[in-house]
Amino acid sequence: MRKRARVIYNPTSGRETLKSKLVDILDVLERGGYETSAYATTPQENSARDEATRVAREGFDLVVAAGGDGTINQVINGIAPLDHRPKLGIIPAGTTNDFARALGIPRDDLVEAARVMTKGQLLPMDVGKASNDEMTQYFINIAAGGRLTELTYDVPSDLKTVFGYIAYLVKAVEMLPQARPIDMKVTYDGGHYEGKASMFFLAMTNSVGGFEQAVPNASLNDGNFTMIIVKTGNMMEILQLLTKALNGGRHVNDSRIIYKKTRNFTVAQTDTKRPMPINLDGEYGGSAPMQFENLKEHLSIFSNLPKQQPQQLLE
Predict the structure, then answer these.
(1) Is 206 a residue whose pLDDT tops 80?
(2) Residues in domain DAGKc (predicted)?
(3) Which of 80, 214, 252, 264 is a Cys-bridge partner for 138, taking CB atoms 3.0 to 4.6 Å apart?
(4) Which CATH entry fits the domain spanning 136-296: 3.40.630.30, 3.30.390.50, 2.40.128.20, 2.60.200.40?
């Protein structure tokens, strides 16, 4: 019986270039031995998530998330809670494509990205689980909270489409003067912190907003988040930390940073004047308080990493 693949694609991603390449993408997967079909996401809430769940339950062998980080996150949420989890493929067509960057998947050639799935190189990949009293969600790249982390979902989708990554940079410049610290309480493996912080990150790859030095020792499948807490809210100090990050990741040794590996993490806001939104893979994921757990090697994802990097070839 032929293997079945479903391409779940966002027709508005990547300045709408994905649609013109779809026939070629389907052809690559067909030649790779998959009976392939496609589904275009709709404006309906959780369209990609619900389709991923449906085809996974029908026994599809491969689900392909074609779009930006938000589309990938929805597909992850569609299959991560299930007992039977199909293989996952990525075709990056978004603005920053952090996850594809971390996996070495071509970001400037969508058809070449599809060919990655015909080479049989699978990586057992960690998945993050975020939960509170209201919801449980999953993420594959980053969870974050704090004033500056709100910028990714404050950028309108039409601006992302037209202006790409420059839209994020403009929003960051606009929001930097507002980066006042928040009173928060966090716990992590072997420690805790209670006090003011302008943001926290739980990274699962080394690429955050297109910057690969933000979390220099992040691992894709060691079962741990790489945690960063930025304790300062001073604009000049944040710029200093950013300069250190861009200059070889030297920010991780700064006293204004807490930098640790942890499997579990909880965050609560002690200042209740304004809710603390949580950012999951660049999208709004609810508000604190929230608990996070790293699910080690929870999904098998096609990658294009060099041989010397940690990975595992699966049947």
Answers:
(1) no
(2) 1-134
(3) 80
(4) 2.60.200.40
> Tens digit of pLDDT for each residue in 292-309?
999 999 999 999 987 644
Neighbours of 49 (CB within 10 A): 22
Domain boundaries, the chain: 3-120, 136-296
pLDDT score, position 305: 86
Single out the catalytic residue among 283, 293, 297, 315.
283
**Interacting residues of 181 by C-beta distance below 8 A, sequence separation 6+:** 196, 197, 198, 231, 232, 233
Distance, CA of 151 to CA of 264 (rounded, Å): 25
- Fold match flag (3-120 vs 136-296): no
Residue 293 near residue 132 (C-beta atoms within 8 A): no
Cβ–Cβ under 8 Å, residues 52 and 63 = yes
Sorting pLDDT into bands at 50, 70 and 90, what band is 199? confident
CA distances from 282 to 139, 185, 209, 227, 253 (A): 10, 22, 9, 17, 26
Q: What superfamily in CATH does domain 3-120 come from? A: Probable inorganic polyphosphate/atp-NAD kinase; domain 1 (3.40.50.10330)
* Percentage with pLDDT > 70 across the chain: 74
42: tokens are 């709709």
Which class for 60: exposed (0-12), middle (13-18), buried (19 or more C-beta within 10 A)?
buried
Question: How many Cβ atoms sit within 10 Å of the Cβ of residue 72?
Answer: 30
- Tell me which of 174 and 88 has the higher pLDDT: 88
Above 60 in pLDDT, residue 46? Answer: yes
Q: Check: CB of residue 248 under 8 Å from CB of residue 214.
A: no
Please confirm, yes or no, whether 283 is among the known catalytic residues.
yes
Who has greater pLDDT, 206 or 287? 287
The residue count for the chain: 315
